[in-house]
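agent> fetching stored inputs for the 2-phosphoglycolic acid docking request
agent> found them:
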Amino acid sequence: MRKKIIAGNWKMNTTATEGKVFIEKLLQKKLSEKVDIVVCVPFTHLCSVGKMLKGSSMKLGAQNMYFDENGAYTGEISPLMLLDLGVEYVILGHSERRSLFQEDDELINRKLQSALAHGLKPILCVGENLEERETGKVQKVLSYQLRKGFDNLSRQEASQVVIAYEPIWAIGTGKTASDEEAEETIFFIRKTMGEMYDSEFSENIRIQYGGSVKPSNIKGLMNMKNIDGALVGGASLNVEDFEQLVNYEL
Ligand code: PGA
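agent> prediction call returned; pasting tokens
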């Protein structure tokens, strides 16, 4: 039985001071224990938010990392730095990193290998753009991203990964994939994982949907058989919305 995982991706929003106020408010809410809750805050918040989350059921996540442990990589953050602050999850290969910062599948794979070697749990984002969807290339694109992303990972390592299917045309646009569209594509991802590993593996790996998830559409998406949670951008920046998202079952 796969436990649902709902992760907030704050992106480059809020100051560390604002972030503290947000987490303080969130900690006062009664949040469902049936789902894993992760907050992926900016690097500058990890230290303070990490301390605040100690003893709570919420988990700390980062939004990116570099693959090396240390060295002359001005502006980068290493897995050791994340671990030291209590980070458990790290988003890798987000479409904004791919398109705005030219991250390719090879680099993302190196980051994945490094995160896993250090005991961090990657949330690997995959997804097609509008043109790829309209020209019938969804399966080809996803299959490529998955095979490249999981390259050189042992079965044991790969089982720690959470996959986030985020169609790029649905991110921050207000357009969500319909429940059925998301389910169909996530089923394809699960099937591909079965081909890459085995059926037991594909039954157990968690696959989230992401792209304009909000309180009004989460229930339908989470009721789909193959969807194991959500990666949420915009709606994770509002305390009440995030509360409703993680408590969608209550
Ligand atoms: P959104 O972002 O919920 O604002 O569409 C999702 C994401 O980019 O992870």
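agent> quick read of the result: Strands lie at 4-9, 35-40, 59-62, 89-92, 121-126, 162-165, 206-210, 229-232.
agent> awaiting further instructions
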